[in-house]
Task: structure prediction
Amino acid sequence: MNTFKLSASALALTVAASSAFAEIDEAWWKSAAEPYQGVTIRGVTESSPPSLYIREVLAPEFEELTGIRVDIETTSWDQMFDKAIKDMEAGTGIYDMAYIEQDIIYSYLARDFLTDLTQLLADNPDLKAATYDESNFTTFADYFKDSEGHLYGVPMEAFLKVYLYRTDLFEDPEIREAFKEKTGRDLEPATNHADYAEIAQFFTAYGEENDMDLWGTTAQAHTGHVASWYEYWESVAPTFGVYNWGINADENYGSSVANGGEMNGPEAVEAMQWWLSMRDIAPPESPASTWTEVGTTFGAGRVAQGLVYGENAGWIAADESKSLVVGKVGVALPPLAEGVLEEVEAGEGYIGYYDGGAFGLPHSSKNKEATALFLQYIGQNEVQPDWAVAAPRVTNTATYDDPKVVEFNKELGGYYDLIKDKGYLFAGAPAYPFHAQVREATAPIFYQILTGNLGVQEGLDQMAATAEATLTELGYRE
Amino acid sequence: MQSKRLGWILLAPTLVILFFFGVLPFFYVVFVSFHSWNPFAVNPEMVFNGADNFRQIVFDPAFLHSIGVTVMFVFFAVVSELILGYILAQAFMRDFPGKAIFRTIHTLPLIMAPIIVGSVWKLMTTPSIGIIPHYLDEWFGITMNIGTSAPAAFATIVLMDVWHWTPLVTLTLIAALVSLPPDPFEQAQIDGAGKRQIFWHITLPMIAPAVVATVFIRLMDALRTVDEVWMLTGGGPGSATRFVGVHIFKEVFPKTNYGYGSTISVIVLYLTIVSCWLLYVTMLAPRTKRD
Result:
């Protein structure tokens, strides 16, 4: 099934989306947009499937409906931040919408870059669409709210970083038998690190013995790109019980164990050692792999299991034009250390990364009202199902129950069920306004650990010390 | 008098553009370099801190390391390009079948944007899928992984730069060689000079200005290399290819350390000017004096 018509034909999606279009109160939109005829609103976002859907489908639809022109600029991840931050910092007003990744929202709020959308609509009731309601969003929208519950960004994508495994390999009778013979247990998706490692070792050896391009696990372990830093701190360390990058916000942002943090604690060390041991039996491209290459590696059928971002899980599981493992993918929760699940269920942490983003309205925008209309347009329940099928992401609760989405969920191996039922176990990046600054300060040391130039304990000690020094320099740590 | 005024009028647009997009930003960067400024700090304002940033730079191992690898990169890349460029220029001075086609193909890398070059080389060098590691393994049994091997990553970047920029050196040297008068060469041959003697005592001194100009251009370009490296290794593995341009980028953009990043930029600009001056003094100034 070729679900991802986006790259092949935006036209087909436009037609597919027309049923939702019909349910929208056209007269209201036309009248609300009347004062803004001739206005062009501009947005900058990452070149990802959900953003491309906005550019190719939702923006033209909105333009046709309202007469307000929407230009969406899709660019690389770092360029997007660079452009948006410079624009908002200088107040030039080039962009009326900026993609806010979940991890940057706290920095933007601290700098007061964004317009309070809740307040804007409350102050301008004429702009409020009947079909738009903040309560329609999933709890992921909470990341884009302030302490008073006011929304600063309309969620447009939300994913989990999930444990993906090859059902065809896990269900193959010969492989199952070989695995049982070797390990004495049945081959099932792992629930703890030891089991995961055993499966990884088995498949790497299996690939070698059978002269196949097959390895036991993915590893997003680039030695010069922050993707590896993210995989460790957001997806691996939490499964060992190290949350919020090991920084303790309640203890004066202590990072080292000596100062109340966990960045260099025994759990962090164990997590790093385990992850590095998995990296060593992953495909050879792993030390040069970011999130994109990990998806490509899985989609090429080169691994039996791995931690993969949900935005890639969609095409891996269902897009025949890109993936060799369509219909052969299952999803599960990541393997966890003992006691972590109980801790998380009790609300004391999380087991993995809840990734995503929203479109925010910068204070510097010169077309706030017209932009508010567009943001409401993309936040309606009515436009969500086709979007969820075209670029797997769910931001509105009602989307889960739409027949198209229910059907698509089967192809995704139950990925949407996992988000719906277990999404609460995952979390976005910690609420740090210094996110990029601490990441960049510690990343060079992290890469030295990956290359083996620094030992794990020594490297994590240095990272903790550097994080504390950076936080002191920035004024967050006293 | 009138032609003088006309000259200024014609120059005016360029000077205005240069002032706003070159001179003004330069002075702004110098101004910022004397401040501590991170918009995501608790105090997001610019705070004057005197020469603190400059003092910090002297003891910053990351910066010093980036300078070290950059100097190595510049040396290997520029020297290789000069030698290879000269050999190719000499080859193009002769006639051989398919010369026009080969010369066209040879200049194609020049029209490619650095970011594209980085992407192409990333595809060619990624383990498992890249053509280079594949054939190195198949033909010579060599395992190449630029994600883990610092020497491999460094050598690949030098090779990529040589591939990208040697055509520029070739074209410049062809222009210089074509313009040389034939008399001194004929004279030298009559006097029985060998090829090596002709090269060292006639060709090289006569094309020296072109060589120095090419080295200036390549030196300045190589010192600010970012795009290709960013695409290929991101500065890794570890910090093996974190050239000074990449270091500045990471300091200024993701880390938003505008004050310190500006200081590094000013220092690097100063080092570039000094390098070019040294080059001029050692290679061209004695010649000018002789003339």
About this structure: Chain B has one domain: 33-290.
